[in-house]
């Protein structure tokens, strides 16, 4: 008999791998991607393709030549980062800006910290915010959802629902109420916005899929959405809403427009940059919900999800000090 | 123009005020320390390896300044020259100390010690040792995962891929003792470096009865006691079926080496013997010059 | 609530190989080796000498202390020597060697198959019989059973929890025992209830054993105070603390024993041994063990007397399969991989699992991706990623503050980690070191 193999227990494994989790998230993003291709046509295809390819290329280059470590492109984390970055960009963004975004995401967001598992900030959001600050004009003009009828290069642009919402709450002017999409449109995505954030329904389906397959837990999405909704309710109760918009409507618009769903289910729940314990995650979610609503209501930008998540990412090492409930611990 | 002037004056004044404030506060909260501690610390190597037994070079410096004598205080990295410098600063005589070196006391090479299982756990000697006997039948032998190599801050230990055993570079070894602590089986020992870097030691720590030890490894010490009988200086004791050479008493005559039937006793850095003697396995190349065997 | 509240994982139960295989007696060996350490506690002291002739059931070694157990002869024959041998992990093991001659039993042992239902003994008498019989926990921990039956002053037992869970994958010996000896088991439960002076017992059985649940429910109807609780399938449900949480909703505090929440937990095999000891005067000299694996020719549940060479049991099961990579004593989650099977059977080995080579090797670990699946999975509410890193960096004080001593070694963290990191290997090493530091500190304080 050959020599026996000896190792410490346990001798069984669930079969879970990093790659499986990444692929499940990519799968969960597909419904939203399909909708965005229908809405934005060539722009959606080209931007996503360039973003994914660029992220993979930069990860390979940096890992191989700068870090000089074995490359693990097959764990699909670069593909996921590329896809998420694309989801945060307007679909008519010039291709060279997308590549710069991918470079920023990969280098500043991930590799500078040492690779997978080591970064503090969400790489896709680092890329997006980098682009937002460097190319503010291109990053804040969104194409109208005209599908393949619209052109990639010369897309007709227009304001997003969030822009109108902010305008209304700030000034009380309700003349633009008509510009807001109705609720069905918000749910299904027939409106302007970044590539992946428009179809709230598809994102919710994807998010629930991830929770059911235990890729993510419910804590972060639920705390973000509940906090944002409560804030919206308070805004309504304070009488800050203009005539013609009820609190209920405002809550729904808050949740269904902009990067709220994408951020809650896919960006904030990124493994590496979110807290490790249940209460840590809840505090994280509450923080994001508050900050995003503050930025949306009083800040200079109509969209605050990226900044909210990045700010809370910085708090994660502190949040990780919140311990899980130990077995046998008496509730205080 | 006026704006630049005003800015310069305001900033300059702010800086001046801040500097004065900082100086006053620094003086108020200054910690009084013997200035000699800083001077002693400067001549110490600064490796903070803990080989002296204190928590870093500063702690050793403090201990030296507080002590009346330098006996018992030794920096193994800097050695005698460093302690003399310390003595000069403090007006004390540096204690004479024999330089020491780490010695790996296992010769269970891949050839001599057959593998009886395959270890597939995480590569750590301590974890493997806690789990079971190891990949061979010898419960005392080197496990080869390199905890000692990882512990050495001076790069003095390396794993030999052919034998599966660690090798000590005695130029780099400072005898700080970290590898000794890292080895879960107590295989590494700090022994006197010896004149001309020569030393004799028993390359085995197997405490099983001779027959069992030999079955597990061809190079084992079987505790037969022949070396003890040969030694004219009472340097060898055989306890728990294994021989041990006391490096204080050893005179490097190598009679025990010749007497050992399994070749478990090793003599390092000696010139090669004349062909009539049995060949011994040595870790280091011996000196090429044929001289009389050194007598200490 | 029908499971424990914190953590847990779901390994494939892989019980199909040996499930429902009737318990088969293993033939007597020619030479037997009876280890002197088959329990937690001090080694037992031999009371026999070389050359002495003994009968089945005769005392071979006395318990070495309060936390210790007697060892009895499973065979009749002659003692050849009292020496050390090597166990399945290459370490020395003191043992009594004997040549087996015939099968003569001590006359007081009742060898009939009749089920004896009446027990009129006083609690103290029951405990004495259990102590004398050398019964230890046969669920794997091998804790001397009599210690559990004698709560320290100030602590009172309220409920007996019977562990029929068998949460380890592959193992089926407890299941088969419940099916074939359910009546005796029920009597054993009542004996223990009498010894502890309590009126309530809960039998915890996982839902993958519906026939055992049905059988025990049927028997429980005739027994006052005994209820059967079917439990959701989750590992490590059979862990003492988790089982108590699942059955009575109380969590044993850190560092305390189950008696702190009024519970006494015993495995079904242990309770069967109690029945045999009290009703049949038979000391603990055998147990049922599962021999299983995908490539094993005749996987099943074998009744073995202690001291039988493992090779003999394996031959009964069809021999060591060709493609064997690992042989594990116990189940795949907490069992220990062996480096040889020259060891004898004993109270500690509840099963032999033969893993094929393709199933035996670990995957190369990757960086921690901070997915927190280990935190979610840990049934004790610990943070394995953190404890593992602290152990690597030798941060013993921090490990103690992060409650590493609560770790029950279940393996859920390593099982679930997508990066295949060797979390538990480092945590175990840290636990051993921190345990040593704590003991040294307590010893210094006593002075």
Describe this structure in words.
- The complex is a heterotrimer of chains A (332), B (296) and C (447).
- By secondary structure, chain A is mainly α.
- Chain A has two domains: 18-139, no CATH class; 160-319, no CATH class.
- In chain A, 58% of the residues lie in helices and 2% in strands.
- Chain A has 14 helices and three strands.
- Chain A has helices spanning 18-40, 42-67, 77-87, 95-107, 123-134, 136-139, 161-171, 183-188, 200-212, 219-237, 247-256, 260-267, 278-298, 305-319, and strands at residues 4-6, 142-143, 157-158.
- In chain A, strands 2-3 form a two-stranded antiparallel sheet.
- The mean pLDDT of chain A is 88.
- Chain B folds into two domains: 35-90, 3-methyladenine DNA Glycosylase II, Chain A, domain 3 (Orthogonal Bundle); 100-268, Alpha-Beta Plaits (2-Layer Sandwich), CATH 3.30.70.20.
- The N and C termini of chain B lie far apart (85 Å).
- Among the domains of chain C are: 123-280, Rossmann fold (3-Layer(aba) Sandwich); 373-446, no CATH class.
- Chain C has 14 helices and 17 strands.
- Chain C has helices spanning 123-132, 145-149, 173-180, 182-196, 210-220, 240-248, 268-280, 310-316, 357-360, 373-377, 384-392, 396-401, 412-416, 423-446; strands spanning 24-25, 31-35, 45-46, 53-54, 59-62, 71-72, 77-86, 92-100, 159-163, 201-206, 226-231, 263-267, 286-292, 300-305, 324-329, 336-338, 351-356.
- In chain C, strands 1-14-13-17-15-16 form a six-stranded mixed beta sheet.
- In chain C, strand 7 (77-86) and strand 8 form a beta hairpin.
- The radius of gyration of chain C is 22 Å and the shape is globular.
- The mean pLDDT of chain C is 94.
- Chains in contact: A-B, A-C, B-C.
- At the A-C interface, strand 1 and helix 1 of A face strand 15, strand 16, helix 10, helix 13 and helix 14 of C.
Which spans of chain B of ≥5 residues are poorly predicted at pLDDT below 50?
A: 281-296
Question: What is the overall shape of chain B?
Answer: elongated
Q: Any idea what the radius of gyration of chain B is?
A: 27 Å
What CATH architecture of the largest domain in chain B do you see? Answer: 2-Layer Sandwich
